[in-house]
Amino acid sequence: RDETARFIAVEQLSFSFGDKLSFENWLSSSANPAIRRIPRNTLKRIIHKLVATQKKELIKEFASLDNKVSLCSDIWSDHWQSCSYMRITCHWIDNAWNIQKRLLAYRCFNDPHTGQNISHLMFIILEEYGLTSKFFSISFDNASVNTCSIYELIRLCQPSMCGKFFHIRCTCHIFNLCVQDGLKSLELYIRPIKSAIHYLWTHPQVMK
């Protein structure tokens, strides 16, 4: 069951996947006749247990680290703007000089997006992993509230070199802002092209 749960989580399948009759038939015929379907709620409990186990192992590994780690974070809303999420990824070099990357948190974040709320949730996550004094820098978008949260994190965590290299501004976000500004200056020429394409898509008989 644990391996089935890992497979479903890694492949980002629905929790109901393990409860499908076709899945049970395939496993029982190709692997083990005794295998039965796994209910969705059971699968959810197994995955939560596996995540907790992996988190404990990661906390233990971080506790033995002598070097610093770097973080990357992002905040976004779903398609319907009904819920926001925060993701934090950790990067570091292990004793064998291999670059490691782990997802620390993927949290629902529906509080007002203020610098204080953002930094507070980040600090809680870092405390859970024992990283408040072990991270060197964080890559984050250039939004004003994100910049405010960085100042608050510097105050809370007291990073190396007084936080001089603490905030690594997201290159992709900068490029996107540049492109958006460039497109604004070309809007007079782009709008007729977009209108023509929209007309062709909405009138397929014209294409014939």
Automatic annotation (TrEMBL):
Keyword Lyase: no
Principal location: nucleus
Keywords: Metal-binding, Nucleus, Zinc, Zinc-finger
Entry GO CC: nucleus
Localisation per UniProt entry: Nucleus
Gene Ontology terms, MF aspect: zinc ion binding
The protein's name: Uncharacterized protein
Species per Swiss-Prot/TrEMBL record: Dorcoceras hygrometricum
Organism ancestry: Eukaryota, Viridiplantae, Streptophyta, Embryophyta, Tracheophyta
